[in-house]
Task: structure prediction
Amino acid sequence: MSEKVNPGAAATAALKDQSQERQKAMIAEHFRKLAEAPERGEKCVYTFVPGNLTELIDSFGLLPVLPEINALQSGMRGKSRDYIALAEKLGHSEDVCTYVKCDIGMLKSGNVGPTGERLPNPDLLLLSYTGCFTFLKWFELLGQEYDAPVTMLHVPYQGDGVVTDSMRTYVVDQLKKKIIPALERISGRAYDEEALKERLERSAQAEEDLVWVLESAKRRPSPIDAYFGGVYYIGPIFTAFRGTQDAVLYYRELRAEVEERIALGKGPVTPDGEIANERYRLVVEGPPNWTSFRKFWQMFAEEGAVVVASTYTKVGGVYDNGFRHDPDRPLETLADYCMGCYTNLNLPTRVQMLERYVREYSADGFLINSVKSCNSFSAGQLMILREVERRTARPGGFIESDLVDPRYFSASNIKNRLESYFQMIEQKRAGGV
Amino acid sequence: MKIDYCVGIDLGSTTTKAVVLDGERHILGRGITNSRSNYDVACKVALGEALINARFSLIDGRLEHEGIDAERRRELLTRFELAFREQQYRSQLAALRASLHQHAERLALGAATTSTLERILGTMEQETTELYRVGASRKSDFFRDLAGSRYVELAEAIAREGSHAFDPLVGLFDKAILETENSTEAVGTFESHARKAMVQAGDPALQRAVTKVLSIELVQRLGVGTGYGRQRLPFPEKLIRSEILCHGLGAHAMFPQTRTVLDIGGQDTKAIQVDPNGIVTSFQMNDRCAAGCGRYLGYIADEMNLGLHELGPMAGKSCRTVRINSTCTVFAGAELRERLSLGEKREDILAGLHRAIILRAMSLLARSGGIEDEFTFTGGVARNTQAVKALRVLVGEHYGERKLNTSPDSIYTGALGASLFAWREVSRQEAESVEVLA
Result:
């Protein structure tokens, strides 16, 4: 049992490290810029987290808006229930991805973002298609709602588990012939390869520190939680700010904090305190639940369960396999980045990645949080579970919740299942006693 | 003389079960009660019942010791147990009467209500001997069900003749029954009931056996709790085990070759894989929705105005299973009514409903890793013969030949697992203290 986590403190302010405060300020600044964009005549590009072309967008002086991030923020702030209800009232089925419904509901409620400021309308919907079919429909809907142009980058799926030259050429050709001209059109600026290279250089620097932070979880005790912490403060910064100096500084600061944690032998920081006694090391697959995010994290933290590696933190890019944005091959590197995102990987590659995580991070078990409305993640997850169990001989666990629909988070059921899972690990460890 | 025991308590959504295990890991007794809002009371009552059951086993042992043959022992014990249950019922009825009058007085319902209550309770008291006659059938073993159904019948008759309104009488009962079943005193003590019952049963050998067993002290070494309400169990945290682990170990104890366990309880269904030592290797549970669980059958029984235990036998008469698509409890009710209106036979519809519930379990089993040999079916629903039959058919269709284990005591599987964990904990603590001494 973690000594410092206080489950009764759910209503109290979340504890934050310095890096988290920096992140908060950066996000607030970003949303302020977005709110002021129409007034200042700045243009906005809506795009998705997987396969985002942030460096390219930024090189044109355009501002990125990430609807998934807005949806999850709405979930965390208790707004998603009403947004989803509104979307359903408009005819969106109960089975549709709840990120989509939350976004549509937010749009129809005045498009007020997570900081309470209005989000600008898109000047371009840049649809980077990386394995999630819902993205196509989502931007089709937004295209109609905003009467905004949609430009699609078709990223070929890694069906055979490899990226071939022709796949890369196919993406680069689209970047040259379609995406860059579209960005030139709305920004009124010409493509500046040097500006892109500068940003890619900074991305690579930040990526080095990000990977170092993620891999710090190989230590015992792990100084970070690579799932809850991963999405809460380690990963999010990586999408809207990649390629900026702020991101470089953020990850440098975060790395220093983690180094200090390691020196002091400290466990991960959670909103309710530090996990002082690491009892279970887990690898987690699937997105978290956002509507009860803190409660969900508590269920792990109270039991001393630390997630040492996760896959959801890799939807915005996989870097712990050695990939870095390469300024010397600006468009090719963007193509490789897009094709390498977790959502674009085939099942055998996902299994391989999870198996590697279980082994390299000395995990006690492997847990899936399955989200029924997220087909791109959920399809094949049981097969993954069995295969990872078979290869690693570590017990697998399976829980179900939802992204941002609070109706599908049953705290008592999830707690019940998690406790059973932790006890199962304990029993195996104790040789059956 | 004293006997050490450990108890495992499984606090389910519908019933609370207790298993008492002696130092040799033999089952001394089993107890069950309906779960209620007061978990502490449910645990105490279930343990009390298990200890009563344990003493019955000890009495049986004493009779055997005296050289009485099995048939005679069974006859004596049946007489004794019925006389004992009659005493218990009378004790609870007296508590119910006191509570009913208290509430009637508090609500100032007047003399007419008081006399009507006396009329109902007087009849119920008179019927008690008949209720516990050898060979008499009872709808349930729980006081709430037995007293409740009769009270309501009598209140209805009184209302029909125009002597008293029905609703206030039922309202009083609802209040009083809660107090009665939440009182551990209402049920009385084993000793006082046993002394009366042994006199009533009137056999010298039995009297000797009961007197002997009354002198035995049953000493609890440790209790382990499990089940849905386990956080509320009156046990320290480290003595609480997940029901998944308990069902796995319990099934292993009952059928050591078990590799796959299906447990269908009141509100959840669990598919569990265990290794040769009964250690859980994988599990799946129903999520978000309790469709296809025991409550589904309870709802259907209510819809058809049948007792829960009558569903299986009636469905067993079916010659043509109706295909029921919905496992949603409420929709299944609607489908049931539609099928009835179309002239389908009740038994055929019921057979379809049983198949639907098992189909849902099959999906969980597949997700947990399939069905290995041997396969054990536990939980309250495993007592339903039609559910077992449907399961056997579907397992055969999907997995081929598998040995399917069921037991009349399957409802106690989780509690049995918990009691085994309790003894393991005792052994661990003893080993630790030896280490400290060394």
User: Anything to note?
Assistant: The mean pLDDT of chain A is 92. Residues 7-429 of chain A form one domain. Chain A is about 50% helix and 10% strand.
